[in-house]
Amino acid sequence: MKVDLEHLEYLSKLKLPESEKEKFEADFVKILDFVDEITKLDLPEEDKKKATPLSELREDEVKEGEFCDTLSNAPKQKDGCFVTPLVVE
Amino acid sequence: METRFDKLSVRELADGIKKQKYKCEEVVRFFAKRCEESVKFNAIIEVFDDIFEKARLIDEKISRGEKLGKLAGVPVAIKDNILCKGKKMSCASKFMKDFVSPYSATIVKKLESEDAVIFARTNMDEFAMGGSTENTIYGPCKNAFDEKRVAGGSSGGSAVAVALGLCPVAIGTDTGGSIRQPSSFNGVVGIKPTYGTVSRYGIVAFASSTDQAGPITKTVEDNEFVLSILAGKDEHDMTTIDNDFSKAMVKKKYTVGLCKELVEKIKVLKEYPQFEKAVEKMKQEGFDYVEVSVPHILNSLACYYILTPAEAASNLARFDGVKYTSRSESARTLEDVYVKSRSEGFGKEVQRRIMLGNFVLSSGYFDAYYKKAKSLQQLLKKEFAKAFEKCDCILTPTTPGEAFEIGGKIKDPLAMYLEDLFTVPASIAGIPALSVPYAKGEHGLPLGLQFMGKERSEKVLYDIAKKFGGESYGI
């Protein structure tokens, strides 16, 4: 199994240190080879079609929630907003 | 002589406080001192600084003649991924090391409403990913019976804390065995309840479709007592179910199932003679035995290592360097904020699981891996349901062996994953599974026996374990 590490880093918003890439890839391939057994299983049609059953949904009502300061753990905040670097030039 | 509060059951401890045999303050002081004396085990990250104040409030309430809850004054430790308002919570991750919980988890509120003292937070594998409590910024948690060996994980700190008598109860979370495996390694009792029994609100999500919290205690009685308090439907977690398990019927005689697909795996274990002896003992005590089949049970592990990384990749996307405590100092652009904060903040195992998850969800692989694993999960649920038509529980060892040495498996992720062979099936199927200590291995370390049951059969599992006589070793 070949792995496109760069693509996975991109999807994961992660960057591995160069020195760790080789070992990471070797371990990764070993794990994929292990879970690969699943691709060879012949499963009954009904299980293939059946989606995960949804939980029972509650009524969509406006309720008094508990006040919770969502900004309290932000690394940077200003005037009640999260601060990020400039997004639009 | 000082009362050994760690030798009392949870009920006895609360009753003693209510009847003013001793003060809650004495109880809290006793356990805080034990934590201080056991720092080298790395089980406890922090004993909360308001425990004496809380204890005094409880003592005052009692002296005023107020009625107190079922856990009056009982110190309860919580795993470091459970929110308690105003307290730090880090998931043992560098990313979250300065996070302060803005609200409390439903289970914390439930414990507090029964007058428990939320006492300390316990060490764990980062974001609950791991089976040894070595993936942690606080240093490896050590096994209660051998400091050179692992605590198990990911709720290693919770299991070791209970085993060492640092608190009478600790709460863990279990996604694929994270309560049961460390309980087994440290000679204590742990349950992963039926999925949905315990609210996940205020617990940091790893894999939402299998995450469950549960108690770790010294005895089966204590475990049942505390789970009955934690359980219940919660409007903040729509996957919760009404599982009033304590009202379930118990039987005089039970049928124990041995899963034929697992028997071959069990027979080759070093500790097979101990398992065989336990089966013999149960037969002598009047349990019936039957062979059952769960044809795809051995595929559970592969299924688990596809589904849970996929969910983790999605759940951990929220840690972006904008909302939660950490942002890379060198980040200049928004993309930088994401990539650098995550790469610097997450440990290796967490990064591996996120990448695995994104692999199985990515274009070209989704159908072959993720969708197939979801189908397999449905099939496994049906296979288990069928097996439980013939028996009240399925018996396995909790782990393939005793606690392994610190450093022994950490460099080989697949070897670590294979440790979960017996615990993962119940997680995938959403059924309850209880681990109780039953024997010692070749190095004299505790071994756990696992009882899996059908949905909502916790009461039956506890009853079987009591009849079997599973108790903690005690230190």
Report on the structure:
Helices cover 35% and strands 4% of the residues of chain A. Chain A has 89 residues and is mainly alpha-helical. Chain A has a domain at 1-42. In chain A, a hairpin with a 2-residue loop joins strand 1 and strand 2. Chain B is an alpha/beta fold and 475 residues long. Chain B has a single domain (7-475), classed as Amidase signature (AS) domain (Amidase signature (AS) enzymes, Alpha-Beta Complex), CATH 3.90.1300. Helix content of chain B is 37%, strand content 13%. Chain B has 16 helices and 11 strands. Chain B has an 11-stranded mixed sheet. In chain B, helix 2 runs antiparallel to helix 3, helix 10 (300-315) crosses helix 12 (348-361) and helix 10 (300-315) crosses helix 13. Chain B is globular. The two termini of chain B are 19 Å apart. The chains are: A mainly alpha (89), B alpha/beta (475). At the A-B interface, helix 1 and helix 2 of A face helix 10, helix 11, helix 12, helix 13 and helix 14 of B.
Distance between the termini of chain B: 19 Å
What share of residues are in beta strands of chain A? under 5%
The amount of beta strand of chain B, in percent, is 5-15%
Mean pLDDT of chain B, nearest integer? 96
Reported CATH architecture of chain B: Alpha-Beta Complex
Coarse structural class of chain A: mainly alpha
Oligomer kind: heterodimer
- How many domains comprise the coordinates of chain B? 1
Strand order across the biggest sheet of chain A? 1-2
> How would a crystallographer describe the biggest sheet of chain B?
11 strands, mixed
Task: Let me know the number of strands of chain A.
Answer: 2
